[in-house]
């Protein structure tokens, strides 16, 4: 067989035989490089992004406002916790109950709920059932998310408008609480339209992202609506974390080097017996 192979190579042109022996690329031929590992995106195998353009400016502004709202909501939650602790201390230790502690805590929690809602939309943290969306291809998921977002925008818009009219009425009439403290109610009422306006703006920005991704003008990895919210996302995150931990702890294994027996070694200047 070796002789037949040598004869076959001998029949080839000189340049072609040289390429066969050296396995080098042909003149003008591009060499293939190994594919680098890409981070996890919302695409499935075979679903490649159509564009790598960044998010539009309106989407980035909405994300920034939602992040700021989340920081304010977190600060309000901390203050509400401190106020509650202070109220318990003065009531049971100092024997001097306050008149403002309970209402202040309630109003701060209202702030947490409505301002934190926009932050939850930004990070796709609201409760959702993603069984059907995850079973669809990328284009089907985008269309489904667009339809549901339009419906959600209608509901959020009605709630925001109702809250705005309630705030206007409370501010115009200087409506106050019936408690002994009696704070003006237009202050806590303002959290409802403000929070719903931020939620509306965030959903509108995510709707724009989905439409741009559907038309091929935005990378689907930038679409917040494609993020999973159910147990499947948590399980996948645990699997990815476990795989990353294993890959970081594994050490490259080397094959043990075997040495020939002393009687089979060939020393320099000596012949094998």
TrEMBL record:
Q: Topology with regard to the membrane?
A: Multi-pass membrane protein
Q: Where is this region: Disordered?
A: 1-55, 239-273
- Protein location: Cell inner membrane
Q: Name one Pfam family in it.
A: DctQ
Q: Name one GO cellular component term.
A: plasma membrane
Looking up InterPro entries in the UniProt record yields: DctQ, TRAP_DctQ
Q: Which domain of life is it from?
A: Bacteria
Where in the sequence does UniProt note compositional bias of the Basic and acidic residues kind?
Answer: 262-273
- Its main localization is membrane
Query: Where are stretches of biased composition, namely Basic residues?
Result: 13-24
User: What GO molecular function annotations does the UniProt record carry, in alphabetical order?
Assistant: transmembrane transporter activity
Q: Which GO terms describe its biological process?
A: C4-dicarboxylate transport
**Record field: transmembrane:** 68-92, 104-121, 142-166, 186-205
Domain (Tripartite ATP-independent periplasmic transporters DctQ component) ranges? 81-211
Q: Spans of biased composition, class Low complexity? A: 244-261
> Mind listing the UniProt keywords for this protein, alphabetically?
Cell inner membrane, Cell membrane, Membrane, Transmembrane, Transmembrane helix, Transport
Family affiliation: Belongs to the TRAP transporter small permease family.
Protein name, as recorded: TRAP transporter small permease
Q: What is the lineage of its organism?
A: Bacteria, Bacillati, Actinomycetota, Actinomycetes, Micrococcales
């Amino acid at each position: 067989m070796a002789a037949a192979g040598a004869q076959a190579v001998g029949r080839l042109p000189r340049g072609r035989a040289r390429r066969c022996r050296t396995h080098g690329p042909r003149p003008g031929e591009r060499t293939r490089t190994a594919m680098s590992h890409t981070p996890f995106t919302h695409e499935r195998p075979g679903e490649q992004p159509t564009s790598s353009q960044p998010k539009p400016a309106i989407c980035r502004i909405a994300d920034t406002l939602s992040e700021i709202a989340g920081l304010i909501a977190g600060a309000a939650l901390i203050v509400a916790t401190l106020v509650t602790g202070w109220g318990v201390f003065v009531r049971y230790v100092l024997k001097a109950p306050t008149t403002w502690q309970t209402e202040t805590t309630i109003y701060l929690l209202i702030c947490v709920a409505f301002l934190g809602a926009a932050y939850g939309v930004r990070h796709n943290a609201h409760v959702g059932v993603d069984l059907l969306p995850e079973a669809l291809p990328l284009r089907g998921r985008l269309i489904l998310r667009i339809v549901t977002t339009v419906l959600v925008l209608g509901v959020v818009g009605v709630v925001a408008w109702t809250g705005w009219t309630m705030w206007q009425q409370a501010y115009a009439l200087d409506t106050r609480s019936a408690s002994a403290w009696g704070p003006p109610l237009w202050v806590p009422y303002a959290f409802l339209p403000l929070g719903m306006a931020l939620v509306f703006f965030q959903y509108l920005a995510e709707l724009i992202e989905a439409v741009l991704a559907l038309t091929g003008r935005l990378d689907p990895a930038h679409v917040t609506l494609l993020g999973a919210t159910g147990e499947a996302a948590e399980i996948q995150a645990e699997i990815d974390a476990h795989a990353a931990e294993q890959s970081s702890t594994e050490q490259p294994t080397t094959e043990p080097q075997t040495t020939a027996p002393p009687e089979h070694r060939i020393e320099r200047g000596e012949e094998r017996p």
